[in-house]
Amino acid sequence: MFRQAVRRNPNKLPTGILESIPAPDEGWDAVSPLTDMDPKRAIIIDNLTPRPGYLELRKGSFSWATGLGGNVETLLVWRGSTEKMFGAAAGTIWDITATGAASATTITGQTNDRYQSVNFSNTAGNFIVAVNGADPAVNFDGTTWATSPAITGVSSGTLIDIWAHKKRLYFVQKDSLKVWYLSIAAIGGAAQQFDLGPIFTEGGTILCTGTWTFDGGNGVDDYWVVITDQGEVAIYQGDDPASASTWALVGTYRIGFPLSRRSILKTGGDLAVITSDGIVPLSAALRTDRTASGRIALSARIQNEFVKAVSAYKSNFGWDGLSYPKGNLAIFNIPVVGSVLSYQYVVNVLTGAWGRWLGQNAFCWEIFNDRLYFGAASGIVFEADKGSTDNGTAITADLKCAFNYFKRHGQRKKFTMIRPIIRTDSTVMPAIEMNVDYEERVPTATPTVTLPTATGLWDVGLWDVATWGDSLVVRNDWTGCNGIGVCGAVRMRIIGTAGSASIPVDTIVQVIGFDVIYESGGYV
Fold first, then answer.
1. pLDDT by residue (tens digit) across 400-425?
2. Is the whole-model pTM more than 0.70?
3. Spatial contact of 16 and 39, defined as CB atoms under 8 Å apart
4. CA-based, 20 to 30 A from 156: which of 5, 71, 399, 473?
């Protein structure tokens, strides 16, 4: 027997108990028990980005540049008086500064398209300097790509990584524990060797590098960092490896194995490292035993899913991390199936809340003119975070909230009605249902959430004639649901509308929360 706790019904809704559920703005939770998950977290958050107080349907992507001839595995951005963007594919560096068909530069016939690069300035101007471990180092001065001035003392075709530290360029020699460096402010000329073989006791090769801006209590200093494929970290302080008086080893440490040469992401003054143990901030990792890495990782809330992804996909090319300040996000690329499929694990840097993006099959990511881009298969570069479709394909969002006992543990409930509270400027058709007792059920009930019609548009509608509407309207339409159990979880899918690929139009869909009506039964 089910007892109806609410008898009066002025709105002509089914009688029962009305409960409200907040939007799970604390994000994806892949570590908490299903029986004890915070209601502000969720089991699934796909193509919904956590924001403070709500979830937002991710924006789309559309074709920015085409005709690059193959998989676009690197994006390079020159930053000088203006910005210019290039893509590496099919052995060629292509100019993709303007949208449309890509234009080949003078750098052609390259062995591979997996470059590491840095922007570097000296009295001669601003440069991109890039290496790929197989071909001579290349540079761009804002006008021309060149292989001169040449790097001597080592075959520059063996240099596979590059970074700048205190006015000097450093390079990693492929398949070694050797670093090479140039004179201050130089982009070419004689390179000097710095062998870290005696420092690293686990062998292997240097995989990723960076500069760590660290406040040790006596002011900010920049530390020189190299990490091997065995997870050994060496940190140096100083500005000249040839000078014993100005160059010193701070220490060597152990972290999880980094997953690619693009495993280091600068986040403020810290470095986040994508490792087999999770995405760990270097500052915390060096103070913590590796066995506790999962606890201090930035990815702690999704640690189980992250570790499973590492186990399944660690050998695939495309592990990458990017800070996206405009969106207050950090984006981590997960290459699932070679050149076919990738996900992005996305964290709101303001709140630490995670979500997952699907449908953007990227090899690499970059920021160009403060906008977000990714390189993909078939010679295409996409602009992301724009429009409401993926190049004309509808975006599907999937949300499964935490299971909720509604403060009545062990008491059976019959769920009868549910309504999503959505703020939007477009027509939305969510499919929504209640999953009960830890089941996995795909929703089929689909209320149509619509906007008021005939609202006036600025510069189009006529004063005293047009009806003016709000830019965002809150819609909260009820629909029937079913399910009997002691606990329930809202499951909702939003399928956007397919549209034009050539004229992306931004739409806003924000999930604020849910209302649920159920009847209360006896204890089980």
1. 999 999 999 989 999 999 999 999 88
2. yes
3. no
4. 71
114-129 per-position pLDDT tens digit? 999 999 999 999 999 9
Tokens of 430: 């969510």
**What is d(CA 399, CA 34) in angstroms, rounded to the nearest whole number?**
15
d(CA 238, CA 247): 4
Strand 467-468 relative to strand 455-456, pairing: parallel
Q: What is the mean pLDDT of residues 59-83?
A: 97
Picking from 437, 432, 395, the residue whose alpha carbon sits closest to that of residue 417 is: 432
CB neighbours of residue 62 within 10 Å: 19
Tokens found for residue 145: 């790509």
Nearest Cα residue to 70 out of 54, 87, 50: 87
The amino acid at residue 284 is A
Cβ-proximal residues to 296 (8 Å cutoff; 6+ apart), any chain = 280, 281, 284, 285, 288
Residue predicted with more confidence, 269 or 271: 271
Q: What is the DSSP letter of 81?
A: S
Query: What is the Cα–Cα distance from 377 to 188, expressed in whole angstroms?
Result: 33
**DSSP H stretches of helix in 288-378:** 293-296, 303-313
Q: How far apart are CA 17 and CA 7, in angstroms?
A: 9
Domains and CATH numbers, the chain: 2-57+398-523 (2.60.120)
Write the DSSP symbol of residue 87: E
pLDDT surpassing 50 at residue 3: no
Strand duo 354-357 + 341-348: pairing = antiparallel
Would you state the structure tokens that stand for residue 425, as one six-digit string? 């400027």
- 156-183: per-residue pLDDT in tens? 999 999 999 999 999 999 999 999 999 9
Contacts of 72 (CB under 8 A, 6+ apart): 87, 88, 89, 113, 363, 364, 375, 376, 377, 379, 380, 381
Query: Are the CB atoms for 275 and 257 separated by under 8 Å?
Result: yes
Alpha carbons 110 and 138: distance in angstroms, whole number? 11
pLDDT at residue 455 tops 60: no
pLDDT band at 11 (very low <50, low <70, confident <90, very high): low
Q: What are phi and psi of 101, to 5 degrees?
A: -70, 135
Rounded to whole angstroms, the Cα distance separating 254 from 486 reads 46
Confidence of residue 217 (pLDDT cuts 50, 70, 90): very low
- Assign residue 146 a region (left: φ > 0; alpha: ψ between -120 and 50; beta: otherwise): beta
d(C-alpha 460, C-alpha 462), whole Å: 7
H or E stretch covering 285? helix 282-285
Residue 31 or residue 496, greater confidence:
31
Q: Which residue has the higher pLDDT, 292 or 509?
A: 509
Determine the Cα–Cα distance for residues 278 and 282; give it in Å rounded to an integer: 12
Percentage of the chain modeled with pLDDT above 90: 77
